[in-house]
Amino acid sequence: MTYCVGIKVNDGLVFASDSRTNAGVDLVSTFRKMFVFDRPGDRMFALLTTGNLSVTQSVVSILSQQFESGGGMHDLMAAGSMFDAACIVGNVMREVQDRDGPAIRTAGVDSNALVIFGGQVRGDRARLYQIYTPGNFVEATAETPYFQNGEVKYGKPVLDRVIGPETSLMDAAKCALISIDSTMRSNMTVGPPIDMLLYRTDALAIGHRASLEADDPYFSALSEKWSESLNRAFLSVEDPDWPI
Amino acid sequence: MTYCVGIKVNDGLVFASDSRTNAGVDLVSTFRKMFVFDRPGDRMFALLTTGNLSVTQSVVSILSQQFESGGGMHDLMAAGSMFDAACIVGNVMREVQDRDGPAIRTAGVDSNALVIFGGQVRGDRARLYQIYTPGNFVEATAETPYFQNGEVKYGKPVLDRVIGPETSLMDAAKCALISIDSTMRSNMTVGPPIDMLLYRTDALAIGHRASLEADDPYFSALSEKWSESLNRAFLSVEDPDWPI
Lengths: 244, 244
Description:
Chain A has 244 residues and is of the alpha+beta class. Chain A contains five helices and twelve strands. In chain A, the strands form three sheets. A five-stranded antiparallel sheet of chain A has the order 10-1-2-11-12, with helices on one face.
């Protein structure tokens, strides 16, 4: 399994993903799921991929080749807006699914894949999308300011309680880390290193990028402090006065 | 969907369940999922049922009939230990699955069902079991002191962080309520009233039983306080000092 989360706040975008890929608990591998394409001052795109790894690697390879060489049908460099860019990623997903999907499914394997895709193109707003297996996509809104993929449920309550459009970029980053920490604690198929990317609205360049190992000082401190604070929060809730 | 949790601590047992039964979001019904059989001073059993409602209702009806009339093959009154009692519940599950399962599955419906079963019989310890569709079961231990069924993931992190054998009975009850509150907040298919049962070790009688509506003063206060405390816990975690 895996866990990825993308958050859109007014201040910018946060992308976070674990690096655990597994086919059963006895075959655990580490693959990065975060990919970035940028031309500072003009555009910045980040992708968080989940699902069939051969599919997502193909999607990223096609985007990457054309981003570097330019001029193809799927060139993110040519996108005039984030919507156009999301269409490009969706089209590549559809192309890979058309090419490999039937054979993958004939082999009894799931070809589904998902991409959280966000960024900003000069002249457009910072935007965040969830792109599905068929290549269609939805955009994050003020009411639904985040997307999660993979093992999403353990880390959802903290996002639901904390994240809104006014949340600061640092708080959104902290919340993403707590969401991942909660998931790792309850599910062994999600694991470090944690890739993080912060993007500040209108920067048109990567903000901060980090890869946090399990023993990263900030991540360990956050994990411990959150656990303590949660236990303190628990104690601060009054006991029921039930007779027993 | 549904959500049930049974917790075993040294002080006793906590049972909690929501009452939402649905077949799609456009057909929502309320059915109780908690059933109790007791003879004060001698034995107390509680069941939390999830899964196919026709199956679980049959299981409870058979247990109930024989508990009241006595003398049948599935008489919980005749159980000499909690292990014997769990065998009886498992046997009834197997009998109902043998009787109805094939026809249910032929109709394309899932016949799976789960029962969290716990209590105490005089002369034995208080014990907690998870009983599966085939009638087999596992017992809660010091390392795994709780069982959840239904929509389990949202409410698992708080259980993982708070519950251990030394947790007091009231804290275990509070934690069960917070676990249910977290689940209701993130998933609309889990809803009130919340049935709660507390059992104190060696009491051999029901401790406290409550059915909490959404507007129950304690449950509302707990929900609000937990939300506040969680946000305060969030703020107490230091921001990363990432340059951005």
